[in-house]
Structures are given as structure tokens and as C-alpha cells.
What we know:
By secondary structure, this protein is mainly alpha-helical. It has one domain. The protein is 70% helix and 1% strand. It contains 10 helices and 2 strands, in the order ααββαααααααα. A two-stranded antiparallel sheet has the order 1-2. The chain starts with 6 loop residues before the first helix and ends in an 8-residue tail after the last helix.
Amino acid sequence: MSAASGPGARRGVLAVGASRIGYEVKGYFRSPDAVFFTFLFPLIMLGIFTAAFSASGDISAGPGTESISVGAYYLPGMLAAGMLLSGVQNLAVDIATEKGDGTLKRLGGTPLSPVSYFLGKIGHVFVTGVLQAALLLLVAATVFGIALPTEPQAWGTFAWVFVLGVGTSALLGIALSSVPRSGKSATAVVIPIVLVLQFISGVYIQFSQLPEWMQNIASVFPLKWMAQGMRAAFLPDDFKVMEQNQEWDLGWVAVALLAWLVIGLVVSRLTFRWNRRDA
Length: 279
């Protein structure tokens, strides 16, 4: 084994990737539009839905079942949307922009490894995702009076769905960044995809109220499973009857997210280039 590919070189790649996480996070919070449309957007939407629909009363899964507030019902969907926005939307637009303005081409002329570059991007998504979820939960509990789970099992479910969801979203964001032809067109390409997924995946509309054919389409994509996993963690068990199979199906949540994580990893590896496609 050569020194260039030995343990020391791998440690160097990991160290550079770790150092880039801080650089990426700082750059993210210096961009007001990114912070608003990916970091604060779920919090703003939770506030809007809570204020707009609370007058209609609490939500229950049926007669004789436990009722919860409107805000409590929408909280899991907003947590899932936050993961999608932080990973898919943020990275797809960010990397496409870096391709378009020549940043990637310049980085390609340096010793920076693509692995280090990706580690910085993925680590940045995890850091901002954790901060976003913490802020959302804090505001939900203190401002909107939403009761959070007290059972360790619920928080365990939240943890693994969150980790899988953020990792999957980050890799899919990297993969999707290869689709826009330029940085200028990235927003127009990415945001409609993300917005449609939120509407059909039980984020803004109760999933049980969607037509069956739309539920079937949503089930192909990861956001539906992220939202379902979050509902399993935060909603009373009575609410599982409102899911497509009248169960939380956490096993299928894990399978779907792992499958999309692998797809994102493979597509990212096959499509990533330091240069623009038309360069």
C-alpha cells in the first residue's frame, strides 16, 4: 500500500473534511436567503399553521381517541421538512452555484479531495439540521405550548429517523446538484421539486386526506417516510390509523431511507465533477 493511500492519508482527508464543516457552517449563516428559506422556514410555517387552524379545534384520530393541538400535529411534518430543506434544497442549490461561479473548478486545482469536500458539506447539513430541530422543538414547547414526548422510546425513534433522514437528504442534495445547467437555474429547478414533495408527503396536508394515488406516489420518495417516522415519535399511538397502512411501519421507514441513502451516494459518486458539464 502506498503512502498516498495509507492510514495517514485517510486521516488527513478526514481532518480536512472536519475542518471544512466549520467553514461551510459559517458561510451558510452569512447567507440570509439560505437561512430564511431552509433554516427558519419550517418554524415560520409551524407558526402560520398553528395560528391559522387552531380555531377549528384539536385533531383526533377518531371518536374516543386522544386529541392533540393543531401545532402538535404539524410539528413532526415540519421537522421532516426541515431535514429535506437543509439537505436537498440547500446542498443542491449551493453546489450548483459553486459549479456555476467557478468555485468548484478552483477547488479542483487544489489538493482538496472530493471526499473532504463532501464531508464538509454533509457535516454542515448535520450541524445546521441539529440546530434547526432544536430551535423548532424549543419554540414549539415554549411559545406554542406543544407537549413533547416524555418516553425514551419516542426520542430514540426521533434520533434514528433524524440521522437517517438528514444523511439521506444530504446525499440526495449532492446528487440533485448535477441537474441544473447553471447556478442561476438551480433555484428554479430544485425548489419546485421540494415544494411538491412537501405537499404530497403529509407536511402541509394531513396525509390521510390525500387521494390514494397521491399517497402511492409520495411513498416512492423519502420525505413521506421521514414525516411518518417523525409522526411515530411525536404523535399518540392512536394516530397510526391515519397512515396509509394504519401502522407506523417503522421497519419500512428505515428500509426506504436506507435505500434512498444508497441511491444518493451512488448518483453523487457517478455525477460529481469539479468542472461544469458545459465547461
